[in-house]
Amino acid sequence: MDLVKIGAYIASKRKALGLTQKQVAEKLGMSDKSVSKWERGICLPDVSVYLELCEILGITINEFLAGEDIPREDLPAKSEDNLIQVTQDSQHRQRRLKQVIATLMALTLLVCGCLGVVLYRHFSQPQNYIQALDQNGPEVTTAELLSQNDGAMLFRFYAKKPYHQLTVYQYEYRSGELVGKTAVADLLSTGETAWSDGMLAFIPEFEASRVRLVVTNDGTTHTKELPILEGVEDITSYIRGSTQVEGTLPIADDTEQGLLALGYGKWGLAPLSLEQLEQGHAEPSMDFAYYFSVVFS
Known about the structure:
The chain is α+β, with helices and mostly antiparallel strands. It has helices spanning 3-16, 21-28, 32-39, 50-57, 61-66, 75-111, 113-123, 138-147, 274-278; strands spanning 128-132, 153-163, 165-174, 177-188, 195-205, 210-217, 220-227, 239-244, 248-250, 257-265, 288-296.
């Protein structure tokens, strides 16, 4: 995201309302130095104050992250652009963090070789892995604010050995029976843009009867809307639940690996189990269940 552009936009909206930096800061319970840093493009506000700041300035969350006024007819497209930008920014931050860690590790090894070896063994990740992002973290929270839907699930993937194909599968269960399995994303890449460092985002949009899938990788982006709950009329009367893998999952080559599941029930909802769904079983009391997996090859 363009911090300078966002900062200038915050400043212009504040001035248009006749507010000082101190007045905005007092409304947020913060210092005017924080507001000054935002307006100079040094940093963004904490995600926890996004909504309150937007309310004070009379703007939407999408206008805030875009750093400009957005006509109503352009809002859906800009919302998706902002969501993509959030996932890409997260990748860039992760890359910079890895560079900093690598530099610190090198210095540590030079100063104390033995200590460096101990730290490397303790903190090193598998060479190829998928990491579920914290449900309360800034990336997930921002994705939910942008989509105006809760329950977003984001997964970062990193591969020292690049993969040339990434496939996402969607399973659909009705009343406990598997009724369909579809490759909802089958993405090939060249050697220059192999799947090595990116993000998978699943954003359930319950009232629109769909899940929005966003896949990013080194600057490239793929998006798709996946239909769910087809044929359901009184959708708001359904109880919903979800589950996902936790922590870090080593990538197994050419192997389906479950990431998350969504469940919907008219009269109740049984606990979701990724293990059961992986084996082709779902609770009969669950009207609809959707299981999503990924394959790197």
